[in-house]
Specification:
Pfam families: DUF2306 (PF10067). This protein is mostly helical and 164 residues long. It has helices at residues 5-8, 12-33, 39-59, 73-93, 97-118, 125-131, 137-163. The chain has 7 helices and no strands.
Length: 164
């Protein structure tokens, strides 16, 4: 049974983080799957990048995993996300679309999908929100995500082969 109580009881930094990353995940999926280069894509892409920056910045105020003076390896990912957002914009402005696409995909799959998967591990807040603390459900979801990623990757590979 899903419950938002653990999230509502969480520190404000976590609430801001989740409030930015959830729409970033949804909007990012839409942008990756939808038409590119349109005015709508550019506008929604800017909104997505702002959401990613808010997500990364808010993570610096989350210290649940205290490994080194309140910080953990996830904060290194946040630095990479901030740098990646800047590079995505710079490459789009230079019309280096291949680099832009590569960076945005990395931001989405590494910064949202990859990092997000860890938030559903047992003992974490999102595990309690989504699975009410269930220990096995997150692993079933991880398997489903892995299958979906493999399917989408193979679909892209086949599409590229048909174009060449």
């Amino acid at each position: 049974m899903m419950t938002f109580e653990p999230l509502l009881d969480a520190p404000i930094a976590i609430q801001i983080h989740v409030a930015a990353v959830v729409p970033a995940a949804l909007l990012g999926a839409y942008l990756l799957l939808g038409p590119k280069g349109t005015p709508r894509h550019r506008l929604l892409g800017k909104i997505w990048l702002v959401l990613m920056v808010v997500t990364a910045l808010s993570s610096f105020f989350i210290h649940q995993i205290n490994m080194f003076y309140g910080f953990s390896p996830i904060h290194m990912l946040s630095i990479l996300v901030l740098f990646g957002c800047w590079r995505a914009i710079a490459n789009a402005r230079r019309h280096n679309i291949e680099a832009h696409k590569r960076i945005v995909r990395s931001l989405y799959f590494g910064g949202i999908v990859g990092a997000g998967a860890f938030t559903f591990l047992p003992g974490r807040i999102m595990n309690r929100v989504a699975f009410d603390g269930d220990e096995t459900a997150p692993f079933l979801v991880a398997i489903a995500i892995a299958i979906a990623l493999l399917w989408s990757t193979s679909k892209e590979i086949w599409r590229r082969r048909r174009l060449s």
